[in-house]
Amino acid sequence: MQFKYAMKPVVLMGLMSGLFPEVSLAAEDGISGADTAWIMASTALVLFMTLPGLALFYAGLVRSKNVLSVLMQCFAVAGVSTFLWLVAGYSLAFGEGNSWIGDFSKVMMAGIDRETLSGTIPESLFMMFQMTFAIITPALIVGGFAERMKFSAMLIFSAFWLMLVYVPVTHWVWGGGWLGEMGLYDFAGGTVVHITAGVAAIVAAIVMGPRKGFPETAMMPHNMTMTIAGAGMLWVGWFGFNGGSALAADGNASMAILVTHISAAMGTMTWLFIEWYRFGKPSALGAVTGMVAGLGTITPASGFVGPGGAMVIGVLAGIVCFSATQYIKRVLKIDDSLDVFPVHGVGGILGTLLAGVFSATSLGVFSGYGFAEGIDSMSGQLGVQLTGVVATLVFTVVVTYVILKLIDAVIGLRVDEEDEIQGLDISLHEERGYDL
Fold first, then answer.
1. How far apart are CA 295 and CA 243, in angstroms?
2. Which helix (H) or strand (E) holds 430?
3. For residue 87, with 0-12 CB atoms within 10 Å meaning exposed, 13-18 middle and 19 or more buried, which class applies?
4. Domains, the chain, with CATH or none
5. pLDDT score of 199 more than 50
6. Cα R_g (the chain), whole angstroms
7. Exposed (0-12), middle (13-18) or buried (19+): which is 262, by Cβ within 10 Å?
8. Residue 435 confidence (pLDDT)
9. Burial class (CB in 10 A: 0-12, 13-18, 19+), 113
10. How far apart are CA 9 and CA 244, in angstroms?
11. Which residues contact 349 (CB under 8 A, 6 or more apart)?
């Protein structure tokens, strides 16, 4: 009796394989339904981070006369990035190529069909998941030159920057390039996304100069309700950003989500309490900025640290990114409009370095190579992390600067003074964000 019942699942599976041969074929090919479903959900979450998450977050932070221009820029970046990623970006980032750049073997998804796999998921899904990263990275840079760049210049800059900065760095780290071969820890984009975007934003801010009236005139966010709504979408979407980077529905993905949430919470509370102590009142703007700092800083380490390491990383993100914001605005007087570099750039640098310290071999508070494996292991990994940071930073500075100067020489980067005073919504798009 026991034997008969034990055989039933086997018999049933055999019948199913006969009736539905694609079931056995999928198993033979190595596709995982669970992994595929999770990465499909993660892809939607990461796109949701840009549209509408980042778009609303940024739009609320600018003045009301520029709210539509920022929303428009985020949508346009999504369009141009999608086109370029399909045509050649994905191939150059993830094609075999060499240690510096991929090849053209996957141009327009050549050789990729419904059955082609990347690991345990369809390669078309992997391509789409990576496309959402290629969308949000140049969209982040928008915050550095908000309220003063021509729409045409923004489109050209985003296109060239994606292909000449983002694509090569992606190949270096994730596409089989030299930083990946060195063993760089960048689980979900500390170097690829946050350092490149943050550095490009501050280079753009320096090249273009400050907004008219900065720093004498206060340029407060016009709609914090919109910003907080966008921030909440970013927090939720980041679970797909970091958890999806495991490329599987497994313990790595779930741990990445857990540490992402912990770091975001700690970054929020740290920034909030610093403001409370220094200025007498905690602000909603400070809370959401601390949240983004915690999220950006944990991103490169999210697949390597445990909850204890995430707590420390979140607290350090709040302290270091808050200090960087104050220094850049008040001492250097650089008008990085929406604090892209001090939050994303500094956070990405800090998180990439800390990934080499708190790489968890267990889930204790002080799990990490520096504590579990000895100082030699930690220092060796820190050397790799530092190499990745410096290489990404220098490359991004040089190429971004060249792109900006060339565009400025050909069509000009900045709107004229009258258009800036009037606001980009009317001067560039002949529309208003509000008609009350």
1. 12
2. none
3. middle
4. 39-429 (1.10.3430.10)
5. yes
6. 23
7. buried
8. 85
9. exposed
10. 32
11. 190, 195, 389, 393
Tokens of 112: 């990729």
Nearest residue to 78 via CA among 171, 31, 153, 140:
140
What DSSP designation does 332 have? S
Cβ atoms of 135 and 50 within 8 Å: the answer is yes
Instruction: Please state the three-class secondary structure of 28-80 as a single string.
Output: HHCCCHHHHHHHHHHHHHHHHHHHHHHHHHHHHHCCHHHHHHHHHHHHHHHHH
CA separation for the pair 415, 432 (Å, rounded): 18
Q: How far apart are CA 155 and CA 77, in angstroms?
A: 7
In contact, 354 and 311? CB cutoff 8 Å: no
Query: Token pair of 86, please?
Result: 């399909």
Counting Cβ atoms within 10 Å, is residue 107 exposed (0-12), middle (13-18) or buried (19+)?
Answer: middle
Nearest residue to 190 (alpha-carbon basis) of 53, 362, 384: 384
Q: Find all residues with CB under 8 Å of 430, minimum gap 6, and list them.
A: none
Q: Which of 142, 146, 68 is nearest to 425 (CA)?
A: 68
DSSP, residue by residue, 371-422: III-HHHHHHHHHHHHHHHHHHHHHHHHHHHHHHHHHHHHT-SB--HHHHHH
Q: Is-contact 432 67, C-beta < 8 A?
A: no
Phi-psi sector, 24: left (phi>0), alpha (psi -120 to 50), beta: alpha
Q: Which amino acid is at 322?
A: F
The whole-angstrom separation of Cα 247 and Cα 130 is 11
Digit-coded pLDDT (tens) for 103-117 = 999 999 999 999 999
Q: Which residues contact 123 (CB under 8 A, 6 or more apart)?
A: 112, 116, 117
Half-sphere exposure of 17 (CA within 13 A, CB side): 11
- Count of CB atoms within 10 A of residue 5's CB? 8
List, for residues 225-266, the tens digit of each pLDDT value: 999 999 999 999 999 999 999 999 999 999 999 999 999 999
pLDDT digits (tens, 9 = 90+) for 172-184: 999 999 999 999 9
Contact at 8 Å (CB) between 168 and 134? no
Paired tokens of 14:
């055999």
